[in-house]
Amino acid sequence: MNVRGSSYKILANVELEEDADGVIFAHGSRFGGHALFIKDRKLFYVYNFLGIQPEQVFESNVELEPGAYTLGMEVEAQDRG
Predict the structure, then answer these.
(1) Structural domain contains residue 30
(2) Is 36 exposed, middle or buried (0-12, 13-18, 19+ CB in 10 A)?
(3) What three-state secondary structure class fits 41?
């Protein structure tokens, strides 16, 4: 599914344990992709198109504690007209 230029949301219900790290969502190929993951108690979203640098990296400013969460992110397409 090509999301480039589209609006979309990614949401996941998760139960985090102490020191939880890992991928929640990943989709892509050699032409690019995106992933939502937890690292160092923070939520990250990374997007890459055709391997062109720089990658788009977004990091939450909230440290996650153990517990139940609905985590995610939302992209709103920009009108280029």
Answers:
(1) yes
(2) buried
(3) coil
What's the predicted TM-score (pTM) here?
A: 0.81
The domain tally of the chain equals 1
Segments forming the whole domain that contains residue 60 = 8-68
> Kindly report the CA angle at 20 between 3 and 67, in degrees rounded to 5?
95
Flag whether 73 is in a domain: no
| pLDDT tens, per residue, the chain with 81 residues | 566 667 889 999 999 999 899 999 999 888 888 899 999 999 999 988 877 776 788 989 999 999 999 999 888 887 765
The alpha carbon of residue 51 and the mean position of all alpha carbons in its chain are separated, in whole angstroms, by: 17
Tokens of residue 42, six digits: 């923070």
Q: Report the C-alpha gap between 20 and 68 in whole angstroms.
A: 12
